[in-house]
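Hello,

Our lab assistant flagged a job as stuck in the queue for most of the afternoon. It eventually completed. Since we weren't sure the result was trustworthy after the delay, we are filing this so someone can double-check. Below is the sequence as submitted and the structure that was eventually returned. Let us know if re-running is recommended.
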Amino acid sequence: MFKTLKEDISAVFQRDPAVRSMLEVIVCYPGFHALQLHRLAHKMWNWKWYFLARCISQFGRFVTGIEIHPGARIGRGFFIDHGMGVVIGETAEIGDNCTLYHGVTLGGTSWAKEKRHPTLGDDVVIGSGAKILGPFKVGSGSKVGSNSVVVKEVPEKATVVGVPGRMVLSEEERRQQDERHLFDLEHGRLPDPQAQAISRLFEHIRSLEQQVVQLQDQQKVLNDQVKQDNLNERRA
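-- returned structure --
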């Protein structure tokens, strides 16, 4: 238990540059509070003390604004930054060293009593306001941009943005990310596929305009040549 507690505190120091002391984490971090209450509630849930587990979960929701169902499975080094509005469903599974920002939902898309919430691999970063909906896996090392809505499986080390979520990270960017060996928290700097598409359209339009100008110049040269030939024929 103390080893897990130490790992949870260490995760805060690794991924939040604002933290200054261990006491600050223990007293002032709602994500840390919600996680510790969940670990207790999850034990109660596994012991089939369902009502007590739900009471602990609801107390955690009341004091932190973070709702984690006691049935959810959460690995080591989990970090919820700010946390207000985070919702994690009953059958959700979260790997080691994952990071969630405020407003994230790990939700379901079915009323059936089955696996209906997502599974996150290790080292996954979910940006603020993102919604992961459905019983699929988000691969290890992946990132989901802020306010994205993901409704299908995400491969490992992918970067997903948009509504619905689409993969946008290039192979070169993935290689650079692997070389850093750091937690990449700059989820606000993810590519925008719509902006990229519009940029490509403008580039194509500029290319077409240049071709039109070249054709006009060629046509003018040909017209001048024809006029000159006609003038020479008349003189002859």
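-- support follow-up --
The delay was a queue issue, not a problem with the job. The result is valid. The helical segments are 2-15, 22-28, 30-46, 50-64, 171-180, 193-235. The chain has a mean pLDDT of 85.
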